[in-house]
Amino acid sequence: MYLFVKPNGVKTWRLKYTKPSGKEGTLIIGNYPIVTANLSRSRLISDRG
User: Fold this and answer.
1) pLDDT at 7 (0 to 100)
2) Are 28 and 12 in contact, with CB atoms under 8 Å apart?
3) In tens digits, what is the pLDDT along the chain, a chain of 49 residues?
4) In the CATH scheme, what is the homologous superfamily, with its name and number, of domain 2-48?
5) What is the pLDDT of residue 19?
6) Which Pfam families has this protein been placed in (predicted)?
7) CB atoms within 10 A of CB 38
């Protein structure tokens, strides 16, 4: 999980992952500061089930 900063200054939480097929994907979790690091981690944990 990392914080991605766009050239216009918008910050988003993202997660890079690898699918079972071997292809990479990126999950956008939410915008910072609306979504904090702790909230984004808890969303990831709940999504993993």
Assistant:
1) 97
2) yes
3) 899 999 999 999 898 989 889 999 998 888 888 778 778 778 777 766 5
4) Integrase, DNA-binding domain (3.30.160.390)
5) 86
6) Arm-DNA-bind_3
7) 8
Q: Give the residue among 7, 13, 49 at the shortest CA–CA distance from 33.
A: 13
Q: What is the pLDDT of residue 48?
A: 67
Nearest-angstrom CA–CA distance, 41 and 47? 10
Closest CA to 15 of 33, 31, 3: 3
SS (H, E, C) 21-39: CCCEEEEEEEEECCCCHHH
Residue with tokens 């690091």: 37
CA distance 33 to 47: 21
